[in-house]
């Protein structure tokens, strides 16, 4: 068999025909609906048509993709991962829309919600008619969510919710916000309709990363919620942390999409750009960069696939998700930075995708657990010693 530069290890052989069909469908959608426009969205710092995009993603089955029932596709974890990779190869903002919708907001309701909550929210969210967000981070509380200040107190059978959440993807366009709050019973999750009195979600502007993504503050001033707004199935931090583990799994794949797009841009450029009378890809220093990028890209995809198989088998551990997120996002950002150098000055232009991917990955490096948090998770797993505090 011949050597395929875009698949040097033959990893496509790991895919079933159904897996390949999912990948090809999502790739074709992103090529048609995202790639021609995303540089412009990025430059404007907007995601125009987000509702239409969400409906199209819903029609593709990409929202809550690996969940069962309630209009969800019931796909495998590997198929969900492949979709994340293809979406992030277009832009991390689109993958973030899908991750937050499916792996955070829908996953929380699907896993911990009552039957009524599932019936109320999930079919519309799976179809992309309703957008959801997930409010854990606060202005003063990030890596240590146990210290959150947002709180809900009982008033008769109702709950009164107060607090602020920060950096919330999809916040301003959501119909439902899954908000985590301190209560007398520990941290609980609430499915908050965003048209509730006292709830607002101003958009955060002036970001230099994930510009084609809606990021918001959530403000809750005496939001009165009925007793059945609380997610009955969980109390304590394991609620939000289990959702984050699911979303991080998608990032293990997605980050390799950003890396692939940047690698392929560099490879293409290296073959055609000439200096000193020949293509720059003919210089050993450029080849060393391309070879090293290819190593990390395909090792990362292999790692993602392995974790996907473990998730499908029900044997994936949170420490293994940390392993994947830490490695793949860190390597993806390095690939984008190296690709940027191959493109020289053109590397900083929005005409090419590499700088956009590199700056997007700065957010991906931080959200869903920073690099340092995942190092500490692995450090604890390796040594048995907790170095968090
Ligand atoms: P901090 O926790 O203040 O950390 C600052 C630095 O200190 C980091 O380098 C951190 O690793 C380090 N640090 C902290 N504690 C330790 C320690 N014990 N040892 C060593 N180093 C330490 N959140 C949501 O809830 N929902 C969302 O939808 C969401 N979307 C986001 C979208 C974007 C674009 C961004 C940028 C963020 C988003 N976040 C979201 C927030 C994100 O999850 C947090 O930014 C992240 O958890 C880190 O929190 P922080 O920014 O407060 O940093």
TrEMBL record:
<keyword id="KW-0274">FAD</keyword>
<keyword id="KW-0560">Oxidoreductase</keyword>
<dbReference type="InterPro" id="IPR036250">
    <property type="entry name" value="AcylCo_DH-like_C"/>
</dbReference>
<dbReference type="Pfam" id="PF00441">
    <property type="entry name" value="Acyl-CoA_dh_1"/>
</dbReference>
<dbReference type="InterPro" id="IPR006091">
    <property type="entry name" value="Acyl-CoA_Oxase/DH_mid-dom"/>
</dbReference>
<dbReference type="GO" id="GO:0000062">
    <property type="term" value="F:fatty-acyl-CoA binding"/>
</dbReference>
<dbReference type="InterPro" id="IPR052033">
    <property type="entry name" value="Glutaryl-CoA_DH_mitochondrial"/>
</dbReference>
<protein>
    <submittedName>
        <fullName>Acyl-CoA dehydrogenase</fullName>
    </submittedName>
</protein>
<dbReference type="InterPro" id="IPR009100">
    <property type="entry name" value="AcylCoA_DH/oxidase_NM_dom_sf"/>
</dbReference>
<feature type="domain" description="Acyl-CoA dehydrogenase/oxidase N-terminal">
    <location>
        <begin position="16"/>
        <end position="129"/>
    </location>
</feature>
<dbReference type="InterPro" id="IPR046373">
    <property type="entry name" value="Acyl-CoA_Oxase/DH_mid-dom_sf"/>
</dbReference>
<keyword id="KW-0809">Transit peptide</keyword>
<dbReference type="Pfam" id="PF02771">
    <property type="entry name" value="Acyl-CoA_dh_N"/>
</dbReference>
<dbReference type="InterPro" id="IPR013786">
    <property type="entry name" value="AcylCoA_DH/ox_N"/>
</dbReference>
<feature type="domain" description="Acyl-CoA dehydrogenase/oxidase C-terminal">
    <location>
        <begin position="236"/>
        <end position="382"/>
    </location>
</feature>
<dbReference type="Pfam" id="PF02770">
    <property type="entry name" value="Acyl-CoA_dh_M"/>
</dbReference>
<dbReference type="InterPro" id="IPR009075">
    <property type="entry name" value="AcylCo_DH/oxidase_C"/>
</dbReference>
<dbReference type="GO" id="GO:0033539">
    <property type="term" value="P:fatty acid beta-oxidation using acyl-CoA dehydrogenase"/>
</dbReference>
<feature type="domain" description="Acyl-CoA oxidase/dehydrogenase middle">
    <location>
        <begin position="133"/>
        <end position="223"/>
    </location>
</feature>
<comment type="similarity">
    <text>Belongs to the acyl-CoA dehydrogenase family.</text>
</comment>
<dbReference type="InterPro" id="IPR037069">
    <property type="entry name" value="AcylCoA_DH/ox_N_sf"/>
</dbReference>
<dbReference type="GO" id="GO:0046949">
    <property type="term" value="P:fatty-acyl-CoA biosynthetic process"/>
</dbReference>
<dbReference type="GO" id="GO:0004361">
    <property type="term" value="F:glutaryl-CoA dehydrogenase activity"/>
</dbReference>
<keyword id="KW-0285">Flavoprotein</keyword>
<dbReference type="GO" id="GO:0050660">
    <property type="term" value="F:flavin adenine dinucleotide binding"/>
</dbReference>
């Amino acid at each position: 068999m011949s050597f395929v530069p875009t698949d040097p290890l033959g990893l496509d052989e790991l895919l079933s025909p159904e897996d390949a069909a999912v990948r090809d469908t999502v790739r074709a959608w992103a090529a048609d609906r995202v790639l021609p426009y995303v540089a412009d969205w990025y430059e404007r710092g907007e995601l125009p048509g987000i509702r239409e995009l969400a409906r199209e993603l819903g029609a593709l089955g990409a929202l809550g993709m690996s969940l069962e029932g309630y209009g969800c596709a019931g796909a495998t974890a590997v198929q969900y991962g492949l979709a994340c990779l293809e979406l992030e190869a277009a832009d991390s903002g689109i993958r973030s829309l899908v991750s937050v919708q499916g792996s955070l907001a829908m996953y929380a309701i699907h896993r911990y919600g009552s039957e009524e909550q599932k019936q109320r929210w999930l079919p519309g969210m799976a179809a992309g008619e309703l957008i959801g967000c997930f409010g854990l981070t606060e202005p003063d509380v990030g890596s240590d969510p146990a210290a959150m200040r947002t709180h809900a107190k009982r008033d008769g059978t109702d709950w009164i919710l107060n607090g602020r959440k920060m950096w919330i993807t999809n916040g301003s366009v959501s119909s439902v916000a899954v908000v985590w709050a301190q209560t007398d019973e520990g941290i609980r999750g609430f499915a908050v309709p965003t048209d509730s009195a006292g709830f607002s979600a101003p958009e955060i502007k002036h970001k230099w990363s994930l510009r084609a993504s809606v990021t918001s503050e959530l403000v809750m001033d005496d939001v009165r919620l009925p007793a059945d707004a609380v997610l009955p199935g969980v109390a304590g931090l394991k609620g939000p942390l289990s959702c984050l583990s699911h979303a991080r799994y998608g990032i293990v794949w997605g980050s390799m999409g950003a890396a692939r797009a940047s690698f392929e841009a560099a490879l293409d450029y290296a073959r055609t750009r000439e200096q000193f009378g020949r293509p720059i890809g003919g210089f050993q220093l450029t080849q060393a960069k391309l070879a090293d990028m290819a190593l990390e890209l395909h090792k990362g995809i292999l790692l993602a696939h392995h974790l996907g198989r473990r998730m499908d088998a029900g044997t994936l551990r949170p420490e293994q998700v940390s392993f994947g997120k830490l490695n793949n996002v860190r390597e993806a950002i390095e690939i984008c930075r190296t690709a940027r150098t191959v493109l020289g000055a053109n590397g900083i232009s929005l005409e090419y995708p590499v700088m956009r991917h590199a700056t997007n990955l700065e957010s991906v490096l931080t959200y869903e657990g920073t690099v340092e948090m995942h190092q500490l998770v692995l450090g604890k797993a390796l040594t048995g010693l907790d170095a968090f505090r």
